[in-house]
Amino acid sequence: MKIIVKIGDNVARLILARKGKVVDEIGWEEENSMSRLLLARLDELLKRNKLNLDKISDYKIISNVPRKYTSFRIVKMTIESLALAKKTSLC
Asked: Are 4 and 14 in contact (CB under 8 A)?
């Protein structure tokens, strides 16, 4: 399973995909809400599909906003952290 995060034009979307096909998606108006809503919406999407992060093998960001925008940086750091957490077991 793959999580795709699309951001731009004041809209954010989380897409759950398997083998190139959309399984489910969730979206919201993104007006300075990324830091509050990204993980909550991801959790909602996973629960709705009876999945946990262990089942996610890949993450992708699709954005039409500049990389310097805070929303993009929040998404990038969150995705990198989730990917790192999967590779590293915490004691």
From this structure: yes
Distances (CA, A) of 29 to 7, 46, 75, 91: 10, 20, 15, 37
Number of domains into which the chain is organized: 1
* 0.85 surpassed by pTM: yes
Q: Name the amino acid, one letter, at 65.
A: V
Distance of alpha carbon 50 from the chain centroid: 16
Domain boundaries, position 72 = 2-87
Residue 91's pLDDT band (cuts 50, 70, 90): very low
